[in-house]
Design goal:
CATH architecture: 3-Layer(aba) Sandwich
Strand content: 5-15%
Order of helices and strands: HEHEHEHEHHHEH
Distance between the termini: 45 Å
Oligomer: single chain
CATH superfamily: SGNH hydrolase
Largest sheet: 5 strands, parallel
Number of helices: 8
Number of strands: 5
């Protein structure tokens, strides 16, 4: 039950866009290309990136986002690297401001990826050497165990730190953006119909809905506490790397909207990917990772 629960939480509905300001350096974008070895004493890009890289699990692969293709990855619907105008992904938003990014979207996310697999993705990203890249990391969901012990959090944090150090050392002109989990168990439950809540209900650890679809407060609190523990590890890891920006919990403010969830109740619909892109765009501007308009 715990792994099924974690998978379902990937599809939690997302929030309205942050009321974002622009922090950090908003100087014009660099004129360098988007491939080739980084120069000595390279500095991270300013303004807009010349490439974008997606690392993580199926939350950014577009899996099951097309109801006509159940269970299929439709990567053009990805909120990070997709090209579907209905999504208006991060890539598409940057392209509208900075044409140099055209054709430089590297989608390395994999369905079911754990932090160990994301480390492999980071190694692959370094081997590709995208210059002046925005690297978006969406990880954690498939690493959650319940009950969770201190050793579980430590293992995750140590490996996540290696992911960030790999990117930091291997892509010195990049910036890294780490996102938290979209939504929360209670907002996910609120987005489901009564029949869906009953189908999802269970009796194991962290089963926050019982077989009748009723919320189990004790298990809800337990799961939320575990999620907070993993997200704290994400925050600490990102704070240790100067070129890393954390979304600061931006995706935790949710709207209980079933339209954001795909037909398998396990991923984002096109509307969900669009909402994720919008909130990420606001968080990126707020953190100064991209320029102001």
């Amino acid at each position: 039950m715990a792994r099924r629960l974690v998978d379902l939480l990937v599809a939690l509905p997302v929030a309205a866009v942050l009321v974002a300001g622009c922090g950090g350096d908003s100087s014009p974008p660099s004129a360098s290309g988007s491939s080739g070895p980084a120069p000595a004493q390279a500095k991270p890009y300013t303004g807009y990136p010349d490439a974008i890289v997606a690392l993580g699990h199926s939350g950014s692969t577009g899996e099951d986002s097309d109801p006509q293709q159940p269970g299929v990855e439709v990567r053009e619907n990805s909120w990070i690297t997709g090209t579907n105008p209905a999504v208006d992904s991060l890539y598409s938003r940057i392209l509208a401001k900075h044409p140099a990014i055209k054709g430089h979207a590297l989608a390395l996310s994999q369905g079911g990826a754990t932090v160990e697999q994301v480390l492999g993705q980071a190694v692959s990203a370094v081997s590709e050497q995208p210059r002046n890249a925005l690297v978006v990391v969406q990880v954690m969901d498939n690493d959650i165990v319940c009950p969770a012990k201190k050793a579980d959090f430590t293992r995750f944090e140590d490996t996540f730190g290696t992911v960030l150090s790999t990117l930091d050392q291997g892509l010195p002109t990049s910036r890294i953006f780490v996102v938290t989990q979209f939504g929360s168990p209670d907002t996910y439950a609120a987005a489901l119909t009564p029949a869906q809540r009953r189908a999802f209900g269970g009796t194991g650890p962290c089963s926050f809905l019982d077989p009748q679809g009723r919320v189990v407060p004790r298990e809800l609190d337990r799961l939320e506490s575990i999620i907070e523990g993993y997200e704290a590890a994400l925050r600490r890891g990102c704070e240790a790397v100067p070129r890393c920006a954390f979304d600061d919990g931006a995706f935790g403010d949710t709207v209980d909207r079933g339209a954001y969830i795909s037909t398998d109740l396990n991923h984002f619909s096109v509307a969900g990917h669009a909402a994720a892109a919008a909130i990420a765009w606001g968080a990126l501007r707020h953190a100064g990772v991209i320029s102001c308009p």
